[in-house]
Amino acid sequence: MPTVKNRPRYDLRAKILSVGAVGMLVAVLVAAAGWSGLSSSQSSSSQIVALDTLRLQVAQISRYNSDVSGWQVAYAWDASTIGPQAAVAPDSANRAGFVTSIGELHTLLDGLDVETMTDAEKALFAEITSSWDAFEAVDAQVVGLYEDGTEASKVEADGLVVGAGYEQYYAITSQTAELGESLTDRADTLQQDMTSARTRNGAVVVAAVLLGLAAVVTLSLVLGRRVKRSAAEVNGALEALAVGDLTRTPQVASTDEIGDMAASLAEAQRSIARLLAGVVGSSDVLATAAQQLASSSSQVAAGSEETSAQAGVVAAAAEQVSRNVQTVAAGAEEMGASIREIATNANEAARVAGQAVDFSTATAAAIGELGESSKEIGSVVKVITSIAEQTNLLALNATIEAARAGEAGKGFAVVASEVKDLAAESGRAAEDIARRITQVQAQTTSAVAAIGEISAIIASINDYQLTIASAVEEQTATTNEMSRSVTEAATGAGEIAANITGVASAAAESTITVGQMSETVDELARTSAELRTQVGSFTV
């Protein structure tokens, strides 16, 4: 399995946060593009509003053109009906209407926003004001002639009204219409530019959203595929371990928590394999010792029978018993050494099993921390979803306000709609991340359960080791008993020369001891066979 300890660490939290970072970057870019487009649209809208206000004022100037001219014609008509002096008197209704209308016209001209005009429009406006000054100069002459009260003065004044007065009126009308057309053309151009800019900005936002979504989806698929592949490797190794196969090691090269878990699992598999190999070796030694002990007991039994049958042949019997006793002592010594080695191996196996349990517990804790991290990320996703919902609500409110604003709010309504769509897309992306985190938590729970099963298997192995240790202690007691019996047999062999009865008694005691030793050897052989059968269930 490739090692990951010397490689830069890139854990699951960093992988998930990288997806979120890409999404946030896309959101910032889209927001920047939207803000730029909104600022440009607002600037154009402000200019259009200013031009519309100016166009309305110019249209009012056109209305005053007709109004002022109409009042002049009216009081000129009064000069023919009620007399010229009465027509221009302060109490004359038509003359008073003319004065009021011309005053309102001056107020309008003085309040006009000239700074909004271009240089050409400013020059045209100056011509309009000059024409009005000329018109008022003609009107002053007309009023002076009417105040004379003579018929000649009246005829001259009427000529000025339909002559020079009308010429100025037509000049003012033409100039005012030209100024209105210039303002209208500029407003239409600004509207077209604003529409084009809005279209371009919309295309930029859509392109940024699509590219961002493609980046987030691609990154999510790549990371998800890698995590899934690593988790599948660990799961396969755990399933193989569950059926006793220790040869299936997880092939994971990632540097995240799953890579750490795979490395720990592989180390645990190697530790268990070494433990089982030690158990097999110990059982082989135990079986060999049992065979040697059986052979020794057979020899002792043969010696005892020979001693009982040939009690009369004291010298030969004593020699035979001496040889048999020496053989038994050697076998007992070998058996004692084997038992001590078995005890040492059994204790070592118990210690290794304890370490394996500790490794399994640590691995389960690491996976638990992975689950907690997934929960924390789920909380962050919920916050993102909440923000998307609030953004959607703000966009809806903005759409309503734009609708109330009528024609002036259409541009803002389009932006609000785009923000609303973006908020909805962010909410769906957050839900997709939440579903993927739920899958990771489910796989983590499965891994914890599998590690629990490993811990149970190791605990079972530990129990078997304790059983072996107990059997070894019993065998030690039996060996001590056998050594004592051999000592008694040696004493009896020393007394054979003095008393044949003592030889017979020692032979009987040897026969009993051999019977007990045979039973112990049988039990030891059965224990060794059971141990090999249990260990054989694992594939190393």
Report on this model:
GO terms for molecular function: transmembrane signaling receptor activity. InterPro entries: Chemotax_Me-accpt_rcpt, HAMP_dom, MCPsignal_dom. The protein is an all-alpha fold and about 550 residues long. It folds into two domains: about 210 residues; about 210 residues, Helix Hairpins. It contains nine helices and no strands. Helix 1 packs antiparallel against helix 5 and helix 6 packs antiparallel against helix 9. The longest helix is centred in the middle third of the chain and has 92 residues. The mean pLDDT is about 75.
> Which regions are unreliable across 5 or more consecutive residues at pLDDT < 50?
none
Classification by helices and strands: mainly alpha
Helix content: over 70%
Number of separate structural domains: 2
How many strands, what sense, and barrel or not for the largest sheet?
none
Q: Give the distance, in angstroms, between the N- and C-terminal Cα atoms.
A: 16 Å
Please report which band the strand proportion falls in: under 5%, 5-15%, 15-25%, 25-35%, 35-45% or over 45%.
under 5%
- Write the H/E string, N to C: HHHHHHHHH
